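MODEL INPUT / OUTPUT PAIR
PAIR INDEX: 1
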Amino acid sequence: MAINHNGDVAVVLDSQHRTPGNLRAFVQASIRSIRTGKSSDVRFSSTERIEVVPLTARKMEFSYKDGDDYVFSDSETFETVTLSPEIVGDSKNYLVENSPVTVTFVNDKAVQVELPASVVLTVADAPEGIRGDSANNVQKTVALETGISVQAPLFIKTGEKIKIDTRTGKYMERA
């Protein structure tokens, strides 16, 4: 969700409701300002009024990387949006050409990129498994086409496609 905080629109990254022993309840939230891009922790009392700013989410596809920036296109209108590495964040580890994502907008400004629960990536480099090293569920480190490394079973070879969980960054299965 997005809120209006101190005259600035901010995206709520995380929130927790806390009730310490003999004190009043409050909400601890991590927010990121859309204008400055800075994150901060704020505390709201349970009686405080907060103005919620409407969010819009659009299905888009990752097109290409332009220098440090990432370019996404709307699959219906073919409109393109260029996002900075700060907005893309750790999602860049799972982006390949034409991969579907959901981009969240506040006041027509992109604020967040959401990946699907899993993505299929190609193994760029997988060392050979050591013979006889298969006692029980032994794993090896393989490099993927996006540059990240994950733990995968010994039978995975270079050039194969594997499914990766984007929330945990772990190997799921062959694709």
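PAIR INDEX: 2
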Amino acid sequence: MAQAIAPANIAFIKYWGMRDADQILPYNGSISLNLDACLTTTSVVFDPTWDEDLVTLQFYQQEPQTAGGRARERVVAHLDRIRTIAGVTTRARVTSSNTFPADAGIASSAAAFAALTLATTAALKLDLDERELTRLTRRSGSGSAGRSIPTGYVEWYNGDDNGSFAESLAPPEHWDLADIVAVVDTSAKKIGSAENHLLAITSPYFKVRLEGIEQRLNATREAIARRDLTLLGETMETDAVSMHVVCMTQNPPSFYWSAGTMAVIQAVRAWRAEGLEAYFTIDAGPNVHVICAGSDRAELQRRLEALPEVSFTLANGPGAGARLVEAPG
């Protein structure tokens, strides 16, 4: 058996649109930050006496439950992918839990499949380097999961199967940022990211978004290297809005934002105008990530929790990548 922990990540530059659904290859590269408090812990046990895989999931503040349907299918498909590499057919028991709401735009799939990949490859004693692990994790179906393998600030490159991997741009201690997730809705989103990745190309704005990606990637790398919050924030907000414009203009359109989403955006912009520098970004869900300097974390969290539309917040600093907690001897 083996057990691994992996972080959710927040993309400063979003992966949106899938050009190859089999290999999970994106239309564009992306850059993200691993989160130190939004974590998934996964244990994988293999036993030759079992005749089927068992998957148990414990969602945020819920009792453990045996997974079925699409959730189980995705886990078993990835187990099969790794079993094929290892040359085994042994069935497994997978137990997974997380510290934050799932399917609400906080990259729960990324954390889950990064932890599953690392625990499964360790349990089967596969000797894979970090680049190979990120490529394998990408193939899980959650492409952004590959970004949860390396540590800290991470870039996922756009390329062919060999060239589409993730690596660390800087360790967590390079830059003391805070990401405060303003949770306005904990319910699972009605349309998953996977479906919208395939629909993205139907938006007339999709090509416009791609035209600006390289400039935003370059600006984000520069912002991280220089620890330039203004450059990062302005670039990040532009990219987040462009992603959601694609969602809203595809066929059929998809609307992730809620009234609570807009309330947080407007509050962040007002606070920034008053001198408290903070910026928003939003993944595929209604909840808002507010990025600020680590020194402003407590004040931003206090203000966000005072908004009537915010149920609670999840405060994060820069986090490590996926790591083993327990490995076979």
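PAIR 2 NOTE: Helices lie at 69-86, 108-123, 130-138, 193-199, 206-226, 229-249, 259-274, 297-306.
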